[in-house]
Amino acid sequence: MPGMTTLHPMPTSTKKSLTYADTGVDIEAGDRLVGLIQTMMRRTHGPRVLGEHGGFAGMFRLDFNERLFKQNFRDPVLVACTDGVGTKVKLACEMKIYDTVGIDCVAMNVNDMIVQGAEPLIFLDYLGLHTQDPETTAQIVAGVAKGCEISNCALIGGECAEMPDIYQEGDFDIAGFAVGVVELDRAIDPSRVEAGDILVGLPSSGVHSNGFTLARAAVANLDLNTTYEDLDKEKTLGEILLEPTRIYVRQIVKLLRQYKVKKVVSGMSHITGGGLGGNICRSLNDSVDATVHLKEWEIPAIFDFLQKHGNIDTEEMYRVFNMGIGYVLAVRPAFADSIVAHLKQSGENAIVIGEVTKGSGKVHLKGLKTS
Hints:
By secondary structure, the chain is an alpha+beta fold. The chain has helices at 27-42, 88-95, 101-114, 134-150, 212-218, 237-241, 249-258, 275-280, 301-310, 314-320, 336-345; strands at 49-50, 59-60, 76-84, 119-129, 154-162, 172-183, 198-203, 265-270, 288-293, 325-331, 351-358, 363-366.
């Protein structure tokens, strides 16, 4: 009949039929992984997560009718971001330590999100793999789930793509996507930062998840499985470098809830690639500058170690790494002491590291001595 296609029978052959597994993709291994990670994901779910694991998409209620869980949003704004872990995954592969980079992936997203004053709601991860090894992949996802638990964020889905043509044997990549919410009148933006505001810094846990191409080059001739006197004698160099990125969600969300009327936090910065100078400027408007006093905190030993073994200029170190400060708040001067005290009650070693002055949107690192 016109418009119809005739299917011709395949010619008979003695050759073995080609399967997906023959090309390096194991569907059964993927199915086994699903069973391994279901419990991890459910631990991150609250009453607003709908549907069963394994659906085509995750569902999350923005509000909840029951009084116990009702959020009472008046003018909610959704906040979304996506990020990965960069070449830190190369180090994880080399060390065969897979349960920390998932935490990093969550941290890189939710720490960016809370800068806007938002609370994380949901998270999804993406894993690109050479070969699906369910037990190894489950360790990576376990890190993602742990990061979501720390962030009070629901892990509602993800993707594990087995692509032997793209990734070398043993390699993988991880990225994530997060969605949160903030009331419109509580959203934080650079226009609120004023001259006189005080800069409060929160410590990092080390290198976090930026600058690892430079960090790996600096230690290329060293043994990652060795302990060094210049560093923590209880951990190997590789373990120190793989220390997960700190997640600041609970501390910051609790702080913002403490001041329900007064907007005492005028700006915030997540210190990632670009260091203090390259990130604090993103929270400023063009009428103010920020001055950071570098002598106010002790730089973690790992940065001195990287600088020495990589022969890296001090200016370059501050341009690439967080140098011990992972998050910065600009706060109204009258509330600086109370905010520092509140953060310390939350377990943070918050310190005043600088101030905001009139200017043109620049960041000045006071005390920076170039090599």
